Amino acid sequence: MSRYERPMPLRPARGHESRASRLRRWMRPGIGIKRWLAVVFLGELVLALAGALIIRNVFRDASPDSPAGQLFDLVSLQFLPLALRPLVVIVIGGGVFLYGSWRLLNVLLEPFPARTEPLVELIYQKRSLARGPRIVAIGGGTGLSVLLRGLKEMTSNITAVVTVADDGGSSGMLRQELGLPPVGDLRNCIAALADAEPAMTRLLQYRFPSEPGTPGEPGLAGVSGHAFGNLLIAALSDIEGDFEEGVRQSNRVLAVRGQVVPVAPVALTLHAELADGRSLEGQSVIARARGIRRVWITPQAVSACDEAIDAIAGADLIVLGPGSLYTSLLPSLLVPRIRAALEAATGLRVYVANVATQIGETEGYTLGEHLAALNAHGVGGLIDTVVANDHLGARAVPGDQSESVSIDVPSADQRPAVVLADVVDDDNAHLHDSHKLAAVLVHLAEERAAPRAHVVARTA
Q1: Cβ atoms within 10 A of the Cβ of 270, count?
Q2: b/e sequence 386-417, b meaning 16+ C-beta within 10 Å
């Protein structure tokens, strides 16, 4: 397994397609409209039967030469041959039914603004995504948001469990000034999963100028340096009086495909012990450190968000990473309830190895050393499969001092299994490709589900 095809995009809008063609697209499998049209038709058929019974009772004793008798003969098509009467009724009724259905769809869709894709395609996609695998992605940073952009094209049953240990930038300022858990990684994941217009996504990621007085970019007191999305989550949390509820409302406001939840309802503080015996505190400081021996979080007995625990319990696939090993992934895995939920999970647990080392915390690390770090923190046993990149010919970004992670694959009898695939961005050797990575992961989930489905079918 080395290459996976990207999912097919939506078909472009057709400006000159016929009415019949548009109606056929509404009738294809997966839209979910035919069953209800059939119910409506059945109801009309019953009403027609009732009408026929009423007509029969009213005109049963009428004389054939009376006006009532002549009207009955006309309505019941007595002037046509007996074999032809049902056919004429079926043709007229079917035509009226189809014409009325088409006009009804037009009336219902008229208020919607014009879109790049036909609404029928969007509905078809939504219903297809709703049948996709249930996936939980745990981590933070850029890596997690890259993964989510690919996954949302294959399933809408996504839960992103995001770290809350960040203490730098806008998140750090809100954490200090408002006592709010860091929201930067949450914002990035919400933007990645948002099923909103591109302008709304750009607004969410907009950052107010941080240097007051810069020509053409005047700073704004109080919001200088903050991302708009961070302020939105902070405002909703204040309105609701609860951080978790504020994040839930952010999901709803931006029509997130799936859900984004914090790993814990309170801010976490990350600590690290270095190889030389020094101790560091704070995610932003630890990210630049070399020679990290171990990390831990405080408060150590912190609870986890219930949505995260429930999602892990019901997931078909649980993805750990990609993202910064010590500062994005491990802080979430070290939350006691998260770790316990992963131990009890029935879904496939996959660790997505980074495609590049990170200057400071994982400088010079091989794949084996990444796995060794997870084992040293007691979470290596939570992994069933590792996905690592085997395409080393991608374009290197000039000036980036990171290096591609070299693959030292464990022996076949060692756990976990390692799956090598091309999951790197062809234009950036140090980033995952959203679509390639998502395709590999969904393929693993389907492979895992296929034997189970076969066993269930045989049992039935």
Answers
A1: 26
A2: bbbbebeebeeeeeeebbbbebeeeeeeeebe
pLDDT at 321 over 80: yes
What's the mean pLDDT in 433-444? 96
* Residue 203 burial (CB count, 10 A): 15
**Two tokens at 398?**
């000039």
Please state whether 315 falls in left (phi above 0), alpha (psi between -120 and 50) or beta: beta
pLDDT tens, 14-44? 444 555 565 566 666 666 667 777 787 788 7
Report pLDDT digits (tens) over 402-415.
Answer: 889 998 876 555 67
- Mean pLDDT, residues 145-159: 94
Secondary structure in 3-state letters for the chain: CCCCCCCCCCCCCCCCCCHHHHHHHHHCCCCCCHHHHHHHHHHHHHHHHHHHHHHHHHHCCCCCCCHHHHHHHHHCCCCCCCCHHHHHHHHHHHHHHHHHHHHHHHHHHCCCCCCCCCHHHHHHHHHHHHCCCCEEEEECHHHHHHHHHHHCCCCCCEEEEECCCCCCHHHHHHHHHHCCCCCHHHHHHHHHHECCCHHHHHHHHCECCCCCCECCECCCCCCCCCEHHHHHHHHHHHHHCCHHHHHHHHHHHCCECCEEEECCCCCCEEEEEECCCCEEECHHHHCCCCCEEEEEEECCCCCCCHHHHHHHHCCCEEEECCCCHHHHHHHHHCCHHHHHHHHHCCCEEEEECCCECCCCCCCCCCHHHHHHHHHHCCCHHHCCEEEEECCCCCCCCCCCCCCECCCCCCCCCCCCEEEEECCEECCEEEEECHHHHHHHHHHHHHHHHHHHHHHHHHHC
Of 189, 142, 180, which Cα lies nearest the Cα of 161? 189
CA angle 341–183–239, rounded 5-degree value: 105
- The CA angle 459-449-425, to the nearest 5 degrees, is 170
Percent of the chain, pLDDT > 70? Answer: 80
**Residue ranges of domains in the chain, CATH in brackets:** 19-117 (no CATH), 125-459 (3.40.50.10680)
Least confident of 223-232, 274-283, 391-400: 391-400
